[in-house]
Design a protein that fits this description.
Layout lengths: L4 E2 L1 H14 L5 H8 L6 H6 L6 H11 L8 E3 L2 E2 L2 H4 L7 H9 L2
Antiparallel strand pairs: 1-2, 2-3
Length: 102
């Protein structure tokens, strides 16, 4: 899964779709509702510039989801959910066990 990155266009499209569904007129109101102060974040997102991690979480919460998978892609295009879970199988419990056995 090398080269995976945030698909800013897909995130922007999802936000715009939800904005229209909620009948919100402008991006400033979306950002206000999401708890984001900078008025240009959605403009930058539409230009392909990713938000900070904190603002990404705020936008996902505003969308009503915690699922980041639809907004992750690689050079080859969108990733399938199965591809996102093929990384190392290290779980927090396994890390704690490694720490305590040293």
């Amino acid at each position: 899964m090398t080269g995976a990155h945030l698909d800013c266009e897909a995130l922007y499209t999802a936000i715009d779709r939800e904005r229209r569904k909620r009948r919100i007129r402008g991006n400033r109101e979306v950002l206000r509702q999401a708890g984001i102060g900078g008025p240009s974040l959605l403009t930058r997102l539409g230009q392909g510039h990713g938000p900070s991690a904190d603002n990404l979480i705020r936008l996902l919460a505003w969308l009503g989801t915690t699922d980041l998978a639809p907004f992750i892609c690689s050079e080859d295009g969108p990733l399938m959910t199965e591809q996102l879970h093929t990384g190392p199988a290290t779980k927090p419990a396994q890390l704690a066990t490694k720490e305590t056995t040293r």
